[in-house]
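Board work, copied verbatim: DUF6788 domain-containing protein
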Amino acid sequence: MSYEPPTPPAGLPAELVDTLNEASPEQLRDVARYAEGLAEHKEREARLEGEPDENDIEERPDDLPDDVPSKATITIKEINDNRYYYWQWREGEKVRSQYKGPINPDE
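↓ predict structure ↓
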C-alpha cells in the first residue's frame, strides 16, 4: 500500500475531487457503493431505451418465465450484501423487475 494519496481521474471535476478529499473513509466507501450502483442503473436505462435491431432479437430463453417479456434483460441487484439476478424490462415509462435467483446458488 502506498503512503501517497491516489491520483484522481483527469475527467473528474475539481469540486468533486475536493469534496471526496474531505470525506471520511466510511463516507468514501458509501460513495463508492452508490457510484457503482448508479453506473449500473444508468447503463441499464441506456440499454432498455435502445431500440433492438432485427438481428439483435433472440429466441425466448428457456428459463424465462411466462409473465416476463422476451425483451427482458438480466440485471444484478445487491440487497443486504447479497447479490441476486433479476429479469428487468421497460413498460412505457416504468422499469419492471422480477426475481430470478441468487448469483451464488448456495445462498
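The helical segments are 14-22, 25-49.
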